[in-house]
């Protein structure tokens, strides 16, 4: 992703309700080649750890200090992205809440998470809250299935979960495929890569509905300055264009991914 700068914090428009930072995980070993998609729940590469260090160094301190909740997919690459990218939040006493619903959308080995007991052993001395991770979360069946309908239901659950939390600034680390379902924005989606998000890319959103309003879809809208910092003056897709892109992309992807 091209180098981008954060706008002057004094002129950042305040959200009308909550601020949601969405982050894609850093480079994992599965991102190196298709052959490595056979690795079960892979770790980050050395480059991935460097990417996390860059996030830690460049994510504005004032914005980091305002984050009240840090959540991540229970996949190892997302948990470690959170650990390495936001150490100051953890020093402040925050824990990483592992949220199974934001796992990646595919069923290849690299997109299948580890069993709860394996995760508990690996992260037992680290500030990771695994209380929401239960047996079967990695089964890719039932509510965890990879078909588009199931993934859309999980994305809706997550948007409502974020909306209904008491924290007003939340950071969530997820995956390149799932993030498109979550923000309902398929602009830039690349079928070959399975995503339009770069490793460790972060974008900032608010909810479309303001305080006191109710939106059952809990629609997320990217903050204008967030979109501008990554796309410049490129025109945003209108609702009709976005709907057509969703229709064609989701029908081709069928919920599958490896990002």
Short description:
This protein is an alpha/beta fold. The protein is built from 9 helices and 7 strands.
Description:
The chain is α/β, with parallel strands linked by helices. 34% of the residues lie in helices and 12% in strands. The protein has a seven-stranded mixed β-sheet with strand order 4-3-2-5-1-6-7. Strand 3 (96-98), helix 5 and strand 4 (128-129) form a beta-alpha-beta unit. The two termini are 16 Å apart. The relative contact order is 0.20. The model has no long low-confidence stretch (mean pLDDT 87).
Structural class: alpha/beta
Mean pLDDT: 87
Q: Count the helices. How many? A: 9
Give a quick account of the main beta sheet: strands, pairing sense, barrel closure.
7 strands, mixed
Poorly predicted spans? none
Q: Whole-Å distance between the termini?
A: 16 Å
- Helix/strand order, N-terminal first: EHHEHHEHEHEHEEHH
Name some characteristics of this structure.
259 residues, 9 helices, 34% helix, seven-stranded mixed sheet, globular, single chain, alpha/beta
SSE blueprint:
Elements: E1 19-24, H1 46-58, H2 61-66, E2 69-72, H3 76-85, H4 87-91, E3 96-98, H5 116-122, E4 128-129, H6 148-164, E5 169-174, H7 176-183, E6 202-207, E7 220-222, H8 224-231, H9 239-253
Parallel strand pairs: 1-5, 2-3, 2-5, 3-4
Antiparallel strand pairs: 1-6, 6-7
